[in-house]
Amino acid sequence: MKKVRFLKEKSRKDTIVFLEMRNRFVLAISLLAFLTLVRYCRFANSLRGIAPPIHESLQVDSPLLSRAAKAQNLVHDRYGSVIRQAGTDTIILDEHEANFGGSLDGVRGKHKDGRGGIEALCKNRYVHVLDVPKEFNEQLLQECHTLKDWSDMCVALSNAGLGPAMVDEDAFTSSGWYETNQFALEVIFHNRMRQYDCLTVDPSMASAIYVPFYPGLEASRTLWSSDIKARDTIPLKFVEWLQKQPEWAAHGGIDHFMVGGRITWDFRRQGNSWGNKLLTLPPMQNMTTLVIEASTWNTNDMGIPYPTYFHPSCDSEIRAWQQKVRSFQRNVLFSFAGGKRDNMARLIRGQVIDQCGRSPLCKLLSCDRGACQSPQPVMKLFKESQFCLQPQGDSATRRSIFDSMLAGCIPVFFHPESYSGYVWHLPKNQSEYSIFISEDQIRKGVLTVENVLRGVETETIQRMRERIIGLIPNLVYADPRMSILEESTDAFGITIKGVLETISQKKWATAQQF
């Protein structure tokens, strides 16, 4: 009997231990399921355009993403791990996990399985980011105080290159607006590239090689120097380093591209004139360089939009701004924001300003005393104007072109090179979104701006404005820290598409020679 009682007692204790272990296991599974659900919801919300919190490794006021953020969004190899950023969490999936439960299901609506989905998404779109020595990018940012003699670029390059945030409910929407410097594109683009869907650490599987050199920021230190050798020192050193890389040797550089955040003429010095000679160096003829104003006869650079003040983080911010642009009351027929450039006799700016001053239908914002340094007065002028005059200044294009279009103002050009090859971002038919008046006709007094613009029918103005409003997503660079644009393709996305097509054509043409 004692033995029976002992066995029963032991059985009861074993049962209690088993039940306790089972309960703990169920509790652990439930907690894990709850955390997974929370994680999934945060991921799903971020993909719907809700701006996720900034990753802890990202300094909000830092001009460059941290090295920890640099490792995000990499496709390690064709069949290996996929790293995706979701809110503040990093999701790491191996091949089996990716195929198992749709954790990648719905990423930007482009794929629904694992390996096959990534392959379909990134076929012919893989980009490898070259590991460039710090002196060609990060060191320039660390020495931001030295980039300009007359202003501090450190503030201008804060917030991943966007500059200080601004809020002005009268002129703007409540978020997405920054005091962005027109020469900050290299930093903005580099940070946007780190969020690109199809990055790879394997250069052999890349369709393009991105070179994160900041030639515009580097040039800003020496452009005004009389020492020509000093202007060319870093460009020559960079090209010498680039040619020694195995990635360059694979295709002779035809698959490489970089961003030069200034106009092409800053990199195309002839003789002892302005600029350095970066883009005239023989190796650079193979590489594609993206600049804010391109050459009309050189084929190794392409024009992409100047950065504007608007950097949306989701599609709803773009739609909200487009709707606001439609609501603006435009009581000014035409306007001009700029200065005369008295030292450049070939320009018609003085005549344009004089015509504006004499017309009751024109409003002038003179930039000679620094009034245009702040975004608010410029954008307020553009939002109340039907037409915005864009005569050439130091070069054929101006940042004002894109700022005015962002406000829904129809640009008026006077020189054909002012269109400067933005073929990826603007319609081929230039009359869809702009008015052209020949410089010669203004110079000779054959036409006045007022008479030409008064002759444009109201229906034509409305049609052109709606076309411009539809183009706004093409002209803005999304916030590189948190942007997820599901419906819209921003200037970066259009640029990458154009680069990949251009490099593909170069590779095909090279292959035909053999």
From TrEMBL:
Keywords: Golgi apparatus, Signal-anchor, Transmembrane
A Pfam family this chain is assigned to: Exostosin_GT47
GO cellular-component term (any): Golgi membrane
InterPro entries named among the record's database cross-references: Exostosin, Exostosin_GT47
Localization annotation: Golgi apparatus membrane
Membrane topology (UniProt): Single-pass type II membrane protein
Top-level taxon of the source organism: Eukaryota
Domain Exostosin GT47 as annotated: residue spans: 122-451
GO MF assignments: glycosyltransferase activity
Protein family (similarity comment): Belongs to the glycosyltransferase 47 family.
The protein's name: Exostosin GT47 domain-containing protein
Native organism: Physcomitrium patens (Spreading-leaved earth moss)
Gene (UniProt): LOC112293292
